[in-house]
Amino acid sequence: MSRAKSSRKLYSTVPDKIFDVCNIIFMICLMVVTLYPFLNMFALSFNDANDSIRGSIYIWPRVWTTANYEYIFNESSVFHATLISALRTIVGTIISVFCTAMLAYTVSRQEYVLKKFVTIAFVFTMYFNGGLIPNYLLTKELGLLNNFWVYIIPGIIGVFNMIVIRSFIEGLPEGIMESARIDGAGEFTTFMRIVLPLTVPALATVSLFVAVSQWNSWFDVFLYNSSRIELSTLQYELMKILSTSNTAANSSGSAADAFASAQGNITAVTPTSIRATMTIVASVPIILVYPFLQKYFVKGMTVGGVKG
């Protein structure tokens, strides 16, 4: 009992209390700095565009309106483009993570003779790129122009993601895989039944990276599929809307009167309000997915996997 009291006294000294207060203040400031840009975009997206020109919109709309969202979603192509974006994100993430994990498992094996050469060859591509024109010509020769698979195949292997998964696999106890081989499991069986379940934290992290990249990508649509509206993605459609809004605002000479909705009452929107609305529309799906993957980031790898 006396030991417990002395420990409480030890950890309740004045310097400790000062440290706790400073730590709390620092974390609150960090939270505010992190959340403020998103909250500001949220406020601008729901605030009347004419009123936003006055400024002083911080984290709460001054004049509420949904005109900015109505302007974006009145575009008939947005909903179909959203489906294409979701499809490329799901399919691209699954295929990319699986193929990258297979490559990572291969180059993590000490018995693989070409391990060092293959690793260097892949890392080399991180520093040197063929360039835009060679990539376009290669894509054309592969028959991927105006094709959905141009979103998936060129980026099927991520070198950085491969290094992350490989490092994770190298940290696994070798005894687990040796015991699987003793039981007669081949390399693919070992990979599917032993390695993949144990690398879930790394796979979840890489999946988030790939999913965000796929969801936010629009330049490949512009290069390879701009002539096929049915293969357009949400980001590309939003980019076109923003480009149109900027052009109209510049030509009209007044950003506040650049656009009008077709609802009967004229409601102005501006490039700034459209940009804020686009940010919210593009960010919300990823924000909703993140909590489901977060729990894997701190999950243990092989607790109790190997018994002495």
Automatic annotation (TrEMBL):
It is found in: Cell membrane. Belongs to the binding-protein-dependent transport system permease family. Its main location: membrane. The keyword Cell membrane applies. One of its GO terms (biological process) is transmembrane transport. It is a multi-pass membrane protein. SUPFAM superfamilies: MetI-like. Residues 82-293 form the ABC transmembrane type-1 domain. CDD domains: TM_PBP2. The keyword Acetylation does not apply. Signal peptide: none annotated. One of its GO terms (cellular component) is plasma membrane. Keywords: Cell membrane, Membrane, Transmembrane, Transmembrane helix, Transport. PROSITE patterns: ABC_TM1 (PS50928). Pfam families: BPD_transp_1 (PF00528). This is Sugar ABC transporter permease. The chain crosses the membrane at residues 21-39, 78-105, 117-136, 148-169, 190-212, 274-293.
